[in-house]
Design a protein that fits this description.
The protein has about 250 residues and is α/β, with parallel strands linked by helices. About 55% of the residues lie in helices and about 10% in strands. Strands 5-4-1-6-7-8 form a 6-stranded parallel beta sheet. The protein is globular. Bound molecules: magnesium ion.
């Protein structure tokens, strides 16, 4: 029996269209003149740029930056962290305030139309089988920067039975390497291999640079919010394995 740690957004759930909408509504709360419906072209552009986001609140900065045509895609892809920080400072905001606004906008979307919200957050085809198989054979955890209550709703809707004690979300206030280190200390990890499945290359780089996580097996999924260049980087790395959905199903059937 092994230990499988799955990231959520971009591995299990394609939340990008909903993230765009929640970010748009959070912008409207800050700048009420933005209250018009989210234009489809802007939503599509946001989804293309989704690989730059790490935590949900950054979506508000991304949406505001691209809405006004202030920056082009290339600038966002190459230097989003600097653009985000400059935006937060210029507008007199804080990450904490943006997290609040973003979480509130999401809560409001759920409150207005729960079934629509659930439809906007689609599980990737095949991932339900991967999770069910993993739950049958292994210890399973979710390690995510999403708020835990949203993960709970989506797992329930997709009939994945995972105790919330096994979901480590934004509320933990810990980095993924910190959470993985804690999971390695648990008794169930003692003689087990620990697998970490993620769609974001930056996170895998961080884990790979953490000495005590050296035994963790790292996988970049070939879907989700990564770019072709990042998949190439992962393929060239001797630490990270790029996996397809079929690979994941095959891996766990042991
Ligand atoms: Mg992800």
């Amino acid at each position: 029996m092994d230990v499988y740690c799955f990231d959520f957004d971009g591995v299990i759930c394609d939340s990008a269209p909903e993230t765009a909408l929640a970010a748009w509504n959070a912008c409207a709360a800050l700048w009420p003149a933005d209250g018009a419906p989210l234009p489809e072209a802007l939503q599509q552009r946001f989804c293309r740029l989704r690989p730059v986001l790490h935590t949900g609140y950054e979506a508000v900065a991304l949406m505001r930056l691209i809405k006004d045509g202030e920056v082009d895609d290339e600038a966002v892809l190459s230097d989003f962290a600097a653009l985000r920080d400059a935006f937060i400072e210029r507008e007199g905001l804080t990450p904490h305030r943006l997290k609040q606004l973003f979480g509130d906008a999401r809560d409001k979307l759920i409150e207005q139309d729960r079934s629509a919200w659930l439809c906007w957050n689609r599980f990737y085809p095949g991932i339900g089988d991967v999770l069910s198989e993993a739950l049958r054979n292994h210890e399973v955890f979710i390690v995510t920067t999403k708020q835990e209550r949203f993960v709970a709703l989506l797992l329930e809707h997709n009939r994945i039975k995972l105790s919330m004690e096994r979901v480590f979300g934004l509320e933990q206030n810990k980095t993924k390497p910190e959470i993985l280190s804690e999971l390695m200390e648990r008794p169930e990890s003692a003689r087990a291999a620990l697998h970490f499945i993620e769609d974001r290359m930056g996170t895998l780089r961080q884990v790979a640079a953490t000495p005590e996580l050296e035994p963790v097996r790292l996988y970049l999924v070939d879907w989700g919010y990564n770019t072709a260049a990042q998949r190439e980087e992962a393929r060239a790395s001797d630490r990270i394995t790029v996996v397809s959905m079929e690979d994941l199903l095959g891996m766990q059937g042991i």
